[in-house]
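User: Could you check the structure of this?
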Amino acid sequence: MKIKYLLSGTAVFLWVLTFNTAYGQLMAYEAETDSIIGQGIRLLHEEYFDQSLATFQQVIERYPNSPMGYFYAAAVYLFISENYRVVAPEAKFDSLCNIAIKKGEHAIRRNPEDAFSRLYLGGTYGFRGVHKARKRQWLQAFRDGWRGITNLKAAAEIDPQLWDVYYGLGLYHYWRSAKAGILKSLRLIKDERQRGINEIWTAIKKGHYSEIEGKYALVYIYYNEQNYEKALQLNQELYQRFPTDPACLYMRARLFQRLSRWEEMKKTFEKLLACILNSKYKTIGYQVECHYGIAYALKKMGKFSQALEECKKAMALIKKRDPSRELEGPLENFSDIVRMTKNLCDELQKLTSGG
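Assistant: Sure, the predicted structure tokens are below.
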């Protein structure tokens, strides 16, 4: 299957902060604040969303004039939106992003050399740009993406040892090259994929808050590089820590698919489907893809009748999806999932009828 990320053409840089629920650095790495943010991140990935928001509220109260706390709070709503492919948290997300941007722009007007504020400002623009891209609002996404990468580059120039910034820069350098297409073959854009990977590893190893999201990002990158074993190795680390995280389970299932590990693929999609159905956000499109994935694995295992039943479940859900309330997935558009489901259903009808 052809991987379909958020970027295309000149808008490639928008991946600079995709899945960026990684978190920038403190203004002074104070131990207590450092601990608060770390706790908020763990709660977020364990899906204790209210507790995570309450934890980040403490950061807002400590630094009311900084974009920092608002950035983290916005990350919670982006996390929900991306992990469950829902538009629902949008109003709160937009409000927090607007406050963070206002605080950040004010800070750098007062001091253009404020690397930390530029990091948070760039991160917030990146958040908003990614969300717009997932809604296919390309012009707005392009604008925010440009502002995001501009501030991240400035932060790195001001303070080259601001290690967490290399997470965003690494994503930018990798995906810009990976999606450059003919521009790269004509040498109009350098191939900086390895540079990007190296930068993300730097952020993971030296940064304060990039380890988790850096590894999530590298799972996607190694998937795109067709280095599925390496991607699964990182995914396994994340799975041991966050066994019910939908993003982790989704890529785990897709990696098992690429490695022809059909039973594990089936069980992982089943677990993911259960997580979705047990959540507040029972996204129809996500359910359809899970049923398709289960059916695909069953077909590969030679269990055609069971596979057909899963396909029928997927087909029954397709018309119930409201695209205004749901986001697209990270690898294929919903229209592609529908097409693949219909094709698989037709194939299974023939196999089970002896045709």
